[in-house]
Amino acid sequence: MKIGMSHGAGGEVMQDLISNIILSNIHNTRVNGGVGLEDLDDGASIPLGDYEIVMSTDGHTVDPLFFPGGDIGKISVAGTVNDISVMGARPLAIASAMILSEGFPGEDLERIVQSMDAVSRETGVSIVTGDTKVMERGKLDRMVITTTGIGVVKRGEIIRDSGLRPGDKIILTGSVGDHGMALMAFREGFGFDTDLESDVAPVWGMVEAALEVGGVTAMKDPTRGGIANALNELADKSGVGMVVDEDMIPVREEVRAVSEMLGIDPYEVANEGKVIMGVDPEYAEDVLRAVRKAPYGENARIIGEANQDSHVILETSLGGRRILEAPVADPVPRVC
Amino acid sequence: MYRAQLTVEGIVQGVGFRPAVYRLAHELGLTGYVRNMGNLVEIVLEGDEERIKRFIERLKAEKPPISRITRINNEMTAIDSPSFSDFSIKESSSESSGTSVIPADVATCSRCLEEIMDEDNRRYLYPFTACTDCGPRFTVIESIPYDRERTSMREFPLCSSCMEEYLNPLDRRYHAEATCCPVCGPRPFLWRGDVIETDNPLKMAAEFLDEGEILAVKGIGGTHLVCRADDEDAVMKLRSRLGRPSQPFACMSPDVPSVEVYACISEAEEKALTSRRRPIVVLNKNSDYPLAPSVAPGLHNIGVMLPYSGMHHVLFRYTAAPAYVMTSANKPGDPMFIRNSEITRGLEGIADYFLLHDRKIINRCDDSVVRFRGGEMAFIRRSRGYAPEPYDLTHLSENLSALCLGPELDVTFSVLKGGQCYVSQHIGNTSRYDTLLFLKDAVNYLMGITGTESVDVIACDLHPQFLTTSYAEELSERFSADILRVQHHHAHALALMLDNGVGECVCIAADGVGYGADGTSWGGEILHCHGPEYSRVGSLMPQKMPGGDLATRYPARMLLSMLLDSYDGDIRELFIERYLDYFPHGEREIDVVLKQMETGLNTGVSSSTGRALDAISAALRICGMRTYEGECAMKLESTAFRAKGELKIPFRIMKRDGRYILDTSGILMDVMDFLESGEKRAEIAHAAQRAVAEGLAEMAVLAAEDLGVEVIGGTGGVFYNEAISLAVRDYVKERGYSFIQHRNSCAGDGSVSLGQAVAAALEYRK
Lengths: 336, 766
Ligand SMILES: [Fe+3]
Ligand SMILES: [Mg+2]
Ligand SMILES: [Zn+2]
Ligand SMILES: [Zn+2]
Known about the structure:
The structure holds two protein chains of two kinds.
Chain A: H1 12-22, E1 44-48, E2 51-60, E3 66-67, E4 70-71, H2 72-85, E5 90-101, H3 106-123, E6 126-135, E7 143-154, E8 169-172, H4 178-187, H5 204-213, E9 216-220, H6 226-238, E10 241-245, H7 253-262, E11 276-279, H8 281-293, E12 301-307, E13 312-316, E14 320-323
Parallel strand pairs in A: 5-6, 10-13
Antiparallel strand pairs in A: 1-2, 2-7, 3-4, 5-7, 8-11, 8-12, 9-11, 10-12, 13-14
Helix pairs in contact in A: 2-3, 5-8
Chain B: E1 2-11, H1 17-27, E2 31-37, E3 40-47, H2 49-62, E4 68-78, E5 87-89, H3 110-116, H4 160-167, E6 188-191, H5 201-210, E7 215-218, E8 223-228, H6 232-242, E9 251-252, H7 256-260, H8 267-274, E10 280-284, E11 301-305, H9 310-317, E12 324-328, H10 340-346, E13 353-357, E14 369-373, E15 376-381, E16 390-392, E17 402-404, E18 414-417, E19 420-423, H11 433-449, E20 457-461, H12 467-478, E21 482-486, H13 488-500, E22 504-515, E23 521-530, E24 533-540, E25 543-546, H14 550-553, H15 555-563, H16 571-578, H17 586-599, E26 603-606, H18 609-619, H19 631-641, E27 653-656, E28 659-662, H20 664-676, H21 681-707, E29 711-715, H22 722-734, E30 738-741, H23 752-763
Parallel strand pairs in B: 2-5, 7-13, 9-11, 10-14, 17-20, 20-21, 22-29, 24-28, 29-30
Antiparallel strand pairs in B: 1-3, 1-4, 2-3, 6-13, 7-8, 8-12, 9-12, 10-11, 14-15, 16-19, 17-18, 18-19, 22-23, 23-24, 25-26, 27-28
The structure holds fe (iii) ion, magnesium ion and zinc ion (2 copies).
EC number (chain B): 6.2.-.-
Domain YrdC-like (chain B): 199-385
Family (chain B): Belongs to the carbamoyltransferase HypF family.
């Protein structure tokens, strides 16, 4: 087998690659009974005394490096901060490794590092160690940034993907499809007006607000594969189904327009500043109120509810019910 | 003296079979008994050999109208003395073996209709009147053997008059499981928020309809939305409430003469219309067409049926309407509502009144639809009146049991058991959750009434994303059954070959979309099929679909894709000038599509005939947005219908990667040139359709020559198009090949599950 682009797209093909080649060849995957590699959660945890250290890493290859709403620097720090956050842990520190291509412009690098710094200051997460390498011209497309983050949480208070229970409300913290659609449009040179902007942002503020209220049972940031993937992963890992009211999912008008022109579903493309939470119904309204007051959370909504079924069902007032499936890398036409 | 022990399989229960046996045995002076056994009929006869033989001959010839005999096993033994003094009908036994099946629903017979219309009869105007020759069957049965206790008639215990008929072997209601009368049977009632008090709900319903109201009418296998078909305001009101701007509605008229007022009927069409199966027949409209224009807008034809239940007959007694619109009551893509509470809730705001009854519908069953092309019938949908009658596959497989789940849209599924393939009623679009639930329910019921507990094989489509595919995977685990993935067009071809008893052919499979073996989307394929194998020997030119499924909804995207490489001038200008309104986001969207063609972002590749016809339809400004399946191609056919045929568009075939390719871009270029030179749209439409048809036919002929094959077939939804299917047939015959097409099966996706069953039978015969 040879690796194709679909192996990195976040769909089923990537899941297969992970289980067949990666998981089957790595043997030590867990420390002290914490969350480990094969849990395929947003990060891992290492229980130590009364606390658990949460750890997560992410390699960032964004094309283009600078895009409306952000750049690779912002995404590399925010993305890792977010992965730590949705484990329910307070993010503390970031390590960053940069690989640059020979000839990379110094002024671009500076802008990127300043973006990293901005997110670090906004969240209070320090960038504590790093590494820089340069590769020969032509061996690498401009640059790759790998960030690793650690956070901390009281022992046993980690929020897992698998914690959703029937009856839990599903909260979505804002509009979907912004990052994926903005990047796609910008990258392909479609020349759209600049209303289209990535939502890249650190979500810790919203998560912290929710955790303070309590009742959060599961969390995920809907990055690659969009909410279609994230909702299905939550349902699968928790062994539940859910019904989502499609009319409650916010999609920006511009995102919808682009999706209607490209034929790409806004539910299937990446977000970089959103969280999906499962919340005990008793706490749901309070959590929602708290999230709405937090930065980036003003458009949060309750979009649905988990049940004992096994599908993610989208319900619309007009169109009835359809099954929302996890996206595959290359959609094949199916409309007759 | 001899004793014969007969077992009869086929459609032999609930059709008056035992009384017929009883009468015949009496007439021939034979003794013994007859009884239902699970799903076959057992007959024991004593008498002389000659008479027993005559009995069997006459039984085959004189069996009741609905019954069908697929097999008679006969064990004759010489005996010294008789064990029986007379001939009797014995109690049913629930032991089950054999492969008999429940008959399909049957339209009200003439004798029942006479009773309904006879003022002195106790069933005067009673809408649920039925007998052994007619009435609901499949739609009321829960399990086998077919007895009243296992149907939804269980809730209506027979009154003494009905019981007398039911127990008298010489009465035509002897063991008529659905029989009833106004005293003991189901009742109709009118509803709007609450039951409306009236002693004649049907008369009141007809009056509401005359006033332009929309009614939901619960019937035999489902619910219809009904309004007068000659009332444009009512029809438009229904369209806007349903959100169906132009999907054609079917009509029902009281009798043939009322249909002749607005449509022409051939002899064969009349036979189908009046048959006891009562399908919707697609008829050409008269040039003088007095019904509301929006019943079937933009089309030269209209789907028509005649009354098939007492309810329909009685309604028409109270109105002068020449026809009612009768369309399935559902949300787009969802199954019809069948439970009273769902009907009233689901159709709130759509129907003004509800004409309901208190009998449960067990098996939902949509109306069947047929269309004639050059005098030959084809199923568009094979459902009520036909399902679940089996196809005979005994020549391919005696013992394999398989469950075949079909594709995704227009799904039927099939149960193969004991050499019989039971194709289900129409299920629909299984990407919809409620339709998927309906599929799962219907699978349980059909497996139950065919006595199938487990299966060896689950067959499904090759498409990895179909929900029927993941359901197949789930079932294969549950039954520990093998899974067989069948390429869509191969399944089409196998159904066609079964229908015609052909083992090898070159097949033209032309439709909207099917997942190809190479991962691209197919739909204009020339397949060489032989046994379980096939190879792709030709296809339409693979074309990009900018926006994927979006290019199906907005055919101008296909047009742009197909013209892009060949068009000389500024294609952007052309589209802005002529087709701007075909892009909901205007100029900006045209730029996006051009860019998508360049970068390949979300542009699948398809060799679909449907997409090529859509593009022609868009080019001629016939259809710019598809609001229902097949709309653009259907309107293209209707536009071409009245053409004189004076234009000709040549076609070009090349060979690429070892297979023939028809240059569809070339055809589109000629369409644009003719448009430029001011030719009539109808003539261009006609010529373009013909070029596609003959191009497909020529590729098939070339392949048949290469391979030394003598039979060429045509399958897929495109073959509903009369002009295309006749052009292909004539072209193929002209070149000396024989041509086969669907006769007793759907050309479209409704028979994909049947083809999958054939594939399973062939695969496991090896
Ligand atoms: Fe098909
Ligand atoms: Mg998580
Ligand atoms: Zn009758
Ligand atoms: Zn009665």
